[in-house]
Amino acid sequence: MNDLPADRTALLATFERLRDAARSRSPWSVRERRSRLASLEGAIVRRRKAIRRALWEDFRKPSIEVDATEIVTTLTELRYARKHLRAWAAPEPVDTPPALFGARSEIRREPKGVVLIVAPWNYPFQLALAPLVAAIAAGNRGLVRPSEKTPHTRAVIAEIIAEAFEPDAVACAGGEGDAAAYLTSLPFDHVFFTGSTAVGRRVMTAAAETLASTTLELGGKSPAILAPGADVAHAAAKIAWGKGVNGGQTCIAPDYVLAPRESVAALAAALGDRFAAMYGASPEERAATPDYCRLIDTAAFARITALLDDTLASGAHLAFGGGRDAATRYLEPTIVTGLDFDAPLMREEIFGPVLPIVAYDDLAEALARLRTFPKPLALYAFGPSGRALDQIVAVPAGGVTVNDTLLHFVNPALPFGGIGASGMGAYHGRAGFVALSHEKAVVRMGPLGTVPALYPPFGARARAAVTLLERVLSR
Fold it and tell me: pTM for the full model?
């Protein structure tokens, strides 16, 4: 330990403190878990103004969006867990086969131990503390590592954790650069990571070295798909809102739109009208609005504007927006048409306020092609009820919202997670409690126990017992 740099020495000491407490002390009762969640709730509520201010200072996130997408969503998750925790934690009786006559079987969900939560910068408050809610509900101790890209928010999170928890229950990790990579190399019992697919692969590789279980909440190119006959104005309103939230820096934001060719012009116009209504009628008004946040850093600004410029240079059409200011990392809500799946904007997740619209001529052919792509974290289906809408909903994705965007994320009764390249595992509500618990199988045998005929030495009685056992188990 003395050979490590100072920041790693501190991180290791924090991990060992949490691990030693998890190993040496009895698991928290349901009452103790609910009490800790109540302490967390109180610490959050008391710092509403500080949370809003921190996110504005980090990337000009509007206070209403902070409340709606950071504070309220976290408190909803927390209160839902407190309400249902006793039922989730109760032993669950399950069927017992006739061959185990007289026995009772149950599942007990116990804490895994110490959970590492590596949070991203785009929703730096919610995506640090909502997974912590699941960890505490399941009885785990936790180490939260907020993103260094949002230092003001990280400072508030550290204050909240210090107030709400004992140092050997939950801690907040600092450190810059490779601190998160170092933490994932330590033998945590579970690693919960939210971020890019590329980094998620590295986290999973590191977890394999310590055999830690993982939850990976990643991303991908989440499409919004209009079925033939979809209400264009309705779809435009919902897609524009879903894209504009957080400046498009949302892992489940509509990344692009797939629309019937005859609807593309009307859709682009309607989307432009919605962006103008939300953020300002003129480019100058949109640049000055306090209701639209900025890109997180200069690297993100350079990456997204390069993709946009390369796509326009290849022949695509700028249907709306395109304004930018590198000094303030401002990129206007932007709509691009006249492109196909090979365009630069379609090669990677955009993670910003640029919305391509790709035309299709045949829905079945378009959906067949989508099935060859990596499975996205979210999918948005627009259209009247019927076969076409059902076909869109059936496309593989982590989650789906029909005739709106983002909303499947906010229901704590639904599991949230990706599939394939967009993630592994799910959380929210009971799904998070289960994901961060060990499901222990328990069989309580009656006085007869196992069939003595199955004990060695084996003979005709043992063979007859096995034959009988097979018949009983096959019923």
Answer: 0.94
